[in-house]
């Protein structure tokens, strides 16, 4: 018999919908359970946690299985010490959720020749969706450091962990110790998030940069502690949208943008922020460094804020004559442009008298520098500042007092100089010798620091030499102590 009651029809439809939803949820949970069960334990696959048996081949086989899976996969490294000669994990993979979960320790060889021809000990390349969680990687770099200190011929050394051309990468709770060279390198990557990363190496270990970022964008580094013999974090050309927060740095060489200007044609560094961080006993605090040679490189929109310095040798420094060992220096003028760098709320102690040192290029002045609320002391006194070719503004309390050249009122300064200079030139008590000395002093100052050449070309082209000289004299008077 045909059922035509509307109530029964509605009830039947609702029951079918409910049953369909129930089946969909069951299928979802079933698929999720299958995905969660896809975990590869390297001990089950043959690795031995004895610190002697090479687990490289097992790790490579395990990666092949995880990468070939169409569902999320986890590579599990249990508690124990696993010797790894070297491994290279390559994509692209069939899924974008691969997790390397480490409860144990991966150790490299202590023999400096084992990695002599290898740039990276552990390497991931061409992967979308990678997580590395927990554990320790031990580069066993002490023997190589000692070799380098001895002056003997030694291998360059291998980076402990390198990630190339990857995106959507998460590194959480990883410790890197005793790296031969750089600890962690992020190269050519997008959307990388690192948190609770710990780096430890001897304070005299050479070239053991903690985290090195280059040719990468949208990188975040949070709540990490780095102590080593080189830069805690180094930022190279091609880096943009880098956020660093709650970083503890020291000992080491500080956090550096650069070195820039290695090549004549290189990408710049753009939109970098360091905030809520502490430097302790480091060689530098926040640093921008470039080689003294022609280059199209640049560093712009950089923000250093809310930072504590504790006994730091160079808390705030821009060095555009960078040459670390003073050998084979280019001896040229840096073409790198440093533009719009903000220093805000930086406090603490300097280990040297000069706490702020801006040594900028004479052909490309550092411009748009901003200093706000700075308080740096040296031996319980206000430290000193040194500025060369540095232009910008200060606000709030800045100690040591800013030595930046403020060119925002340039034309008013010129007008005032002409007025004062003219009055001085007409003063019969002014000796000829004094006029000549003042004119000479002002001429060098104007031509190299203050006025564009076209301004004085204009003076030279018309019969206003007297005013021209008066302006020089006025500026000389204005800058006399």
TrEMBL record:
<dbReference type="InterPro" id="IPR006626">
    <property type="entry name" value="PbH1"/>
</dbReference>
<comment type="similarity">
    <text>Belongs to the glycosyl hydrolase 28 family.</text>
</comment>
<dbReference type="Pfam" id="PF00295">
    <property type="entry name" value="Glyco_hydro_28"/>
</dbReference>
<protein>
    <submittedName>
        <fullName>Polygalacturonase-like</fullName>
    </submittedName>
</protein>
<dbReference type="GO" id="GO:0008308">
    <property type="term" value="F:voltage-gated monoatomic anion channel activity"/>
</dbReference>
<keyword id="KW-0326">Glycosidase</keyword>
<dbReference type="GO" id="GO:0005975">
    <property type="term" value="P:carbohydrate metabolic process"/>
</dbReference>
<dbReference type="InterPro" id="IPR012334">
    <property type="entry name" value="Pectin_lyas_fold"/>
</dbReference>
<dbReference type="GO" id="GO:0004650">
    <property type="term" value="F:polygalacturonase activity"/>
</dbReference>
<keyword id="KW-0964">Secreted</keyword>
<keyword id="KW-0961">Cell wall biogenesis/degradation</keyword>
<dbReference type="InterPro" id="IPR023614">
    <property type="entry name" value="Porin_dom_sf"/>
</dbReference>
<keyword id="KW-0134">Cell wall</keyword>
<dbReference type="InterPro" id="IPR001925">
    <property type="entry name" value="Porin_Euk"/>
</dbReference>
<comment type="similarity">
    <text>Belongs to the eukaryotic mitochondrial porin (TC 1.B.8.1) family.</text>
</comment>
<dbReference type="Pfam" id="PF01459">
    <property type="entry name" value="Porin_3"/>
</dbReference>
<feature type="active site">
    <location>
        <position position="253"/>
    </location>
</feature>
<dbReference type="InterPro" id="IPR011050">
    <property type="entry name" value="Pectin_lyase_fold/virulence"/>
</dbReference>
<keyword id="KW-0378">Hydrolase</keyword>
<dbReference type="GO" id="GO:0071555">
    <property type="term" value="P:cell wall organization"/>
</dbReference>
<dbReference type="InterPro" id="IPR000743">
    <property type="entry name" value="Glyco_hydro_28"/>
</dbReference>
<dbReference type="GO" id="GO:0005741">
    <property type="term" value="C:mitochondrial outer membrane"/>
</dbReference>
<dbReference type="InterPro" id="IPR027246">
    <property type="entry name" value="Porin_Euk/Tom40"/>
</dbReference>
